[in-house]
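Explain this protein:
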Amino acid sequence: SSGINAEYGDGHTHEWTVYLKPFKSEDMSVYVKKVHFKLHDSYSQPMRIISKPPYRVSESGWGEFEIMVKIFFQDPAEKPVTFYHLLKLFPNESVTVKDKTLISELYDEIIFTDPTSIMYPLLFNARPMDPTLANHHKNFDELERKTFTSIIEARRKIKTEIAELSSRLKNQREYHHTLKQEVKELEEEKKT
């Protein structure tokens, strides 16, 4: 969203855009038939249907709300995919501010575990598109690298903790075994 503190009519204070972009610069229209963006019911036409790239809706408003995004595929046998995006108009930890523009980009993947025979070649033969249409404000490659690094670090910490706990457990078992032996010996002494 942009235009913080401006007036756009109807009490609207922000311009905003919601969009669906490919991660790489590929023409999604090869496999995407249309995208439905369901806006808040206060908009005169809350259901926006976009049938060709760029898949985006620009509006103005005054409040944050959840936008339903539903992707329909060229092959009608493939079920549509629905996800939700919270439209952010005010800065917080998940929002980047750049030149008075708030940016809340999210990365998600659609995984086709068993694409239809029609869909399979469409997914693998997507043609390149104008790379400027696929530009992202966030560096998702860097985000992926940081996430991967943090996962590896977390695994290392978990392995270390497991080793320490295993060692403590082994010591406790040995101590328990020693105590059992002492109790057994004391019981034997008591009998004699």
In short: The CA atoms of residues 81 and 111 lie 10 Å apart. Residues 1-5 have pLDDT under 50 and may be disordered. The beta strands are 14-20, 32-38, 47-50, 55-61, 66-73, 81-86, 96-98, 101-103.
